[in-house]
Specification:
It is built from 7 helices and 24 strands. The protein is α+β, with helices and mostly antiparallel strands. The chain has a 5-stranded mixed β-sheet with strand order 5-4-13-8-9. Strands 6, 7, 10, 11 and 12 form a 5-stranded antiparallel β-sheet that branches. Strands 19-18-22-23-24 form a 5-stranded antiparallel β-sheet, with no helix packed on it. The longest helix has 20 residues. Bound molecules: the ligand Nc1nc2c(c(=O)[nH]1)N[C@H]1C(S)=C(S)[C@@H](COP(=O)(O)O)O[C@H]1N2 and molybdenum atom. Ligand MTE binds next to β3.
């Protein structure tokens, strides 16, 4: 027997002795094995950059609700814990050109237009400047659009166009001060580096408030799908302002109505008028467990949990109803609650086995409360059926999930 083997034997013996000590106290697995000895992971070498377990199967999904047939992948928000979306599960919205393969050494960010000092930065030069890290959600304006058919049961398909990360970068206000913005400037146009030159107009006041030029996401460089090596991060606003693969910012004196934003981001209303620019995302929450498509195995205890957020500020309160809206209880909010960030809420619940409806509603620090679909229809002066149309944006109505006696959970938005 070599030294290694005898060491292993001693260890096994020691293990048996420990199990003996525990008898009577804990429920020990005496005489049983604790499962087969773990085989080596079949993955490629994961020591230099780790991979998740092969038993963890949560994935982004393509969604048929892609507004223009572009790449649209949605986050499995039902599988998330806490408030951070793992980078590999962050939702993805790309218009036409796909993800560019950018060498950060070659990449430049140019700031020009109505400025006294036009500037060009390399990524390394940006990293020398004072940085900030902030936790913020991104949400596509088309998120939560009511769906019909089997997809409507899936919280991922309906509400998965939102994700939340810790973003690190330089405040855009700092770069604009360096460039010295001229009097009369009021907007900027940002441009991405992909083939079709994604462009988007942004009011200068917002740019000076809390917008980031981000190079970091959850402790590592921004992922290629999210805009490597640089993206704009416009907190709380429709994610289409957050230009990925950012390479140019032009300071101007009016919105430019670029080809992309005029054809894709204008929002037609039933009266034939269109909203050209919409900004802040509304106050919203959704229960992610239990949620549509899931099945409760039996009556008994369940923790109800979900996510809440508001483009206008900070989540102050999330109420949960487990009786079809007759009574509401305050859920516990995971601390600290971050501004313009996903906020995790939790409420203990015991299911008695009867049919019921679960729903959550969020109130933010501006006093805005999430509406029911009937209230939203009133505000928009439309019938609730209007929301089944394909052009609906900024839909933030309360999401009811119906629990049937067999434990199955269904989307009850239209019942
Ligand atoms: N360069 C570039 N930036 C872009 C887009 C794009 O197609 N190209 N899509 C926008 C839209 S519509 C959304 S919803 C967000 C999505 O960001 P994500 O893919 O990191 O989730 O990026 C925005 N920024
Ligand atoms: Mo979007």
């Amino acid at each position: 027997m070599n030294a290694k083997e005898s060491g292993r034997r001693k260890f096994l013996k020691g293990g048996v002795a420990l199990a003996g000590l525990a008898v009577g106290g804990l429920r020990v697995a005496s005489g049983q094995s604790s499962g087969a000895e773990a085989a080596a992971s079949p993955h490629k070498d994961s020591r230099t950059y780790g991979e998740r377990s092969r038993f963890d199967t949560a994935e982004r999904q393509p969604t048929g609700a892609a507004p223009y047939g572009d790449t649209a992948l949605v986050t499995p928000i039902q599988a998330l814990t806490g408030i951070i979306t793992p980078a590999g599960l962050h939702f993805v919205m790309d218009h036409l050109a796909g993800v560019p393969d950018i060498d950060p050494q070659q990449h430049r960010l140019m700031i020009h237009g109505m400025v006294d000092r036009p500037l060009i930065f390399t990524v390394e030069e940006l990293k020398r400047l004072p940085s900030v890290s902030r936790i913020h959600f991104l949400e596509c304006n088309a998120n939560s659009r009511p769906l019909q058919g089997p997809k409507a049961e899936s919280v991922q398909q309906v509400h998965g166009k939102t994700s939340c990360s810790e973003w690190t970068g330089v405040l855009l206000s700092l770069l604009l001060q360096e460039a010295s913005v001229q009097a009369g400037a009021s907007w900027l146009v940002s441009e991405g580096a992909e083939g079709n030159k994604y462009t988007k107009s942004l009011p200068l006041a917002k740019a000076m408030e809390d917008v980031l030029v981000a190079y970091g996401q959850n402790g590592e460089p921004v992922r290629p799908e999210q805009g490597f090596p640089l993206r704009l991060l416009v907190p709380g606003w429709e994610a289409n302002y957050s230009t990925k693969w950012l390479r140019r910012i032009k300071i101007v004196d009016q919105p430019y109505m670029t080809q992309h934003e005029s054809t894709h981001n204008a929002n037609l209303h039933p009266d034939g008028k269109a909203h050209w620019f919409r900004f802040e995302m509304g106050v919203k929450s959704v229960i992610t467990r239990p949620c549509g498509g899931q099945k409760l195995p039996s009556p008994g205890f369940y923790e109800i949990t979900g996510l809440a957020w508001s483009g206008g500020g900070t989540v102050r309160k999330v109420e949960v109803s487990t009786d079809g809206g007759r009574t509401w209880k305050n859920a516990e909010l995971q601390q600290p609650v971050h501004r313009k960030a996903h906020t995790r809420f939790r409420l203990p619940w015991t299911w008695d086995g009867n049919e019921t409806i679960l729903q959550s509603r969020c109130t933010d620090d501006q006093g805005e409360m999430q509406p029911t679909i009937a209230e939203l229809a009133k505000i928009w002066e439309v019938s609730t059926d209007y929301f089944l149309g394909s052009g609906v944006d900024h839909f933030n109505a309360i999401q009811p999930w119906k629990v049937n006696r067999d434990g199955s959970v269904h989307n009850a938005l239209f019942s």
